[in-house]
Amino acid sequence: MRQIIIIGSGPAGYTAAIYAARANLAPLLIASSVEAGGELMNTTEVENYPGFPEGVQGPELMEHFQAQAERFGTEVLYDDVTSVDLSGEVKKVTVGSGETLEALAVIVATGSAYRKLGIESEDRLSGHGVSWCATCDGFFFRGKEIAVVGGGDSAMEEATFLTRFASKVYVVHRKDTLRASKIMQDRAFANEKIEFVWNATIDEILGADKVTGVVLNDTRTGEKRTLDVTGLFVAIGNDPRVHLFHGQLDLTEEGTLAVEGRSSRTNLPGVFAAGDVIDPTYRQAITAAASGTVAALDAEHFLATLPEELLAPADGDSSPTSPASGSTVTADGQLVGAP
Ligand code: NDP
What we know:
The chain has seven helices and 21 strands.
């Protein structure tokens, strides 16, 4: 049995792993079989992560996260969690291979998944002109006219990036003001290849086996019109990935995992949550990373309060469990002296 399993390999998961590994907890991080690295793997330049004044590519940043976690003894498993049983003292996590892994503490850092428009043609034409990832698929639209739907930072980032390939990028937004940050808005407004289509929703995506256009609905007049594009990038936000935990972990009204105050403690002892899966508001790489730190410290604190007999050495680790990241637990249960 392990001391700690971390589910998720974005900034929250890897930061939790760095702290847990430095605390000699020999964490196992389950990184997913196909989407390891989280959302930053689909990003290009990250300009706002502190410590990289010139910016850093998203995948490169995630490589750094992983290398740092592994340096201190994190084991990374590339598999998908298929079910969990978190109710008992020993937490059970089953992965795609069929193996059930056990731990005394679990940190859930499953992030969020791309939101869909919810129209029939979206699924049918997914991979045939409909995409959620400009960095993955932008190349296929060289010299083409395409559309991005959404009004947040993701939509601005995708649209701006896609102008490297496309001859024209329409940004279709359901309102007449953007949610995106000022700097991202300004960059998109200044780009001559980007044209905004305001107050419009997408009623239908046209095409039998590949996208040939989209039907727009004017939200003020109800008028329909067709925009001839060969690609549609959906960038309308994300929903927290909580499906594995229904019936076990409490959710908030926003659909994120519920945690106690500023802590990472869920309703189940020994289960902690961090990153976008608990955050309906800020959802930045740096806030996710910070939240991973909180979860690791909370888990470390929790493990330190368990009876000695439960604290068998972690697999392959003969060292005893102790809150070893320079911190100690005081008589009243406070964790002090953490770096
Ligand atoms: P957001 O939730 O910020 O924005 C989603 C956008 O999609 C909104 O404009 C929303 O419209 C629109 N939308 C939502 N649902 C629908 C729908 N069904 N049909 C049409 N439009 C819809 O999500 P983002 O992914 O843009 O950003 C998420 C977080 O990640 C934010 O905190 C953002 O700052 C951050 N981020 C930061 C980046 C950076 O700093 N480099 C890059 C990308 C993301 P409405 O405005 O009407 O609600």
